[in-house]
Amino acid sequence: MENSLPRKPRLHVPGGFYHVIARGNGKQDIFLGDSDRLLWEQLLQKGLQKHKHQVHAYCWMINHVHIVIRAGEKALGRFMGSLLSRYAKVFNRQTGRSGHVFERRHRAILVKEDDYLLELVRYIHHNPQRAGIVSKIGDYRWCSHHAYMGNVRTPWLITDAVFSLFNANLRSARRQYVEFVGEKQPPSIIEKFRGVSSNDHRVLGDDEWRDPVLGDANPKPEFESLDQLIDVVCRRYGVTEAQLATRSRSRANAKIRAEIALNAVDAGVATVTEIARRFGRSQPVISRAVSRLRDKME
Q1: Of the candidates 273, 254, 260, which has an alpha carbon nearest to the alpha carbon of residue 228?
Q2: In angstroms, rounded to a whole number, what is the distance separating the alpha carbons of residues 257 and 282?
Q3: Tell me: the pLDDT tens digits for 90-119?
Q4: 53 near 68, Cβ under 8 Å?
Q5: 180 vs 176: CA distance, rounded Å
Q6: What is the pLDDT of residue 153?
């Protein structure tokens, strides 16, 4: 048993806007060229169609991604887990690599729409400029700024919600957007999106909004801890944790371990590495089992 504080369960608020961040493992590059980003977008679009979420802004950097997602009814964690897993599998196959492509856990921060959505879009679109990759945000190809400018059409991107916060008239809204992103963003806002001034990294908003959200978003999470998850699944199949941790090559037990690992990752209560350690298996073995199970569920 590890002596670490349990992770807080992910918040799922249907209709809520999330700032989702996924980074390369050890800060390694996740995109080696344009073809990788195109592959990422293809997998993203397929996942959106299946899981019914909406993308409202994005930026694909070299070693991480930013996405503004409006959550549908299905858990956002399952969508992101599937997307990261599928991309990593193809990326490793094409590059001859192995192991993790992304950090063990993506971040998903619920953002108060009225106060922070516009600032979040501006923060994301300015990311390449802040990183010193380009001198102007319009010079960076792989972000949704170009769609907001009307220069390209991205079928899986929704701009109406952001434009409506500027003006009901599209032409006026676009003009106001240009003025808005052209202004320098206050350092205090940048710090908030970097998580510098937050007590709970799952939400970004004032106390009056945040407290009810934290109290009501997940009143009865399916699994609050890895211990609870293992107990529920073991009772369902009539096995014990000790049996799952033996060196037996039982296929039935392997499937149960994969189910536990998949649910643990999607619920945010444990990583594949932690599951592997718990059951005395190697991380690659558990990771492959999770991928196979996820593929069957898709």
Answers
A1: 260
A2: 12
A3: 999 999 988 889 987 788 999 988 778 999
A4: no
A5: 6
A6: 92
Would you state the structure tokens that stand for residue 155, as one six-digit string?
A: 């079928």
Contacts of 215 (CB under 8 A, 6+ apart): none
Residue 274 CB coordination number (10 Å): 19
pLDDT, one tens digit per residue, over 7-35 is 566 778 889 999 999 999 999 999 999 99
What is the percent of the chain where pLDDT is above 70?
90
| All CATH 3.30.70.1290 domain ranges in the chain, comma separated | 17-216
134 touches 128 (CB < 8 A):
yes
Please identify, in words, the CATH class of the domain defined by 17-216: alpha beta
Q: Does the CA dihedral 46-19-102-142 come out positive or negative?
A: positive
pLDDT at 184 over 90: no
Supply the pLDDT for residue 11: 79
Question: Which amino acid belongs to residue 269?
Answer: V
Question: How far is CA 76 from each of CA 14, 22, 55, 199, 235, rounded to the nearest angstrom?
Answer: 9, 13, 12, 22, 27
pLDDT tens column, 266-280: 777 888 889 999 999
46-64 residue pLDDT tens: 999 989 999 999 999 999 9
- d(C-alpha 66, C-alpha 109), whole Å: 11
